[in-house]
């Protein structure tokens, strides 16, 4: 139980850290991902979060066969690739299908 509780607390901390970085940057009135440090920090936090999830919840590295660990890692990498790739695909499609009038309205609302 301690193992899962440690993983949960680390996950909550990393999630709050990422949220806090973005919230502080957005509150300053800047475009959220315009600062390269923020993007790099979020990618680093995401990588650490991924390792925490693998070690504490998928139990990679714990006792067990290497084949099972490899299968879990490949499955997790596939799920992450589907989620990230699908999200990027949807965002690119929405950006492509936005009309110029919608873009102008969006830019006006963002500047206010």
Main features:
112 residues; mainly alpha; 4 helices; 82% helix
| Distance N to C terminus | 50 Å
Structural class: mainly alpha
CA radius of gyration is 19 Å
Low-confidence stretches: none
Describe it for me?
The chain is 82% helix and 0% strand. The protein has 112 residues and is an all-alpha fold. It has two domains: 1-57; 66-112. Helix 1 (2-27) runs antiparallel to helix 2 (36-57). The model has no long low-confidence stretch (mean pLDDT 84).
SSE topology sketch:
Layout: H1 2-27, H2 36-57, H3 66-97, H4 100-111
Helix pairs in contact: 1-2
Summarize the structure.
The protein has 112 residues and is mainly α. The protein has helices at residues 2-27, 36-57, 66-97, 100-111.
């Amino acid at each position: 139980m301690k193992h899962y509780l440690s993983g949960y607390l680390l996950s909550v901390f990393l999630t709050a850290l990422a949220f806090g970085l973005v919230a502080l940057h957005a509150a300053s009135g800047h475009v959220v991902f315009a600062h390269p440090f923020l993007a790099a920090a979020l990618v680093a936090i995401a990588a650490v979060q991924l390792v925490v999830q693998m070690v504490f919840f998928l139990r990679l590295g714990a006792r067990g066969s290497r084949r099972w660990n490899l299968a879990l890692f490949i499955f997790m990498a596939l799920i992450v690739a589907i989620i990230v790739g699908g999200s990027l695909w949807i965002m690119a499609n929405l950006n492509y299908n936005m009309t110029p009038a919608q873009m102008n309205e969006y830019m006006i609302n963002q500047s206010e």
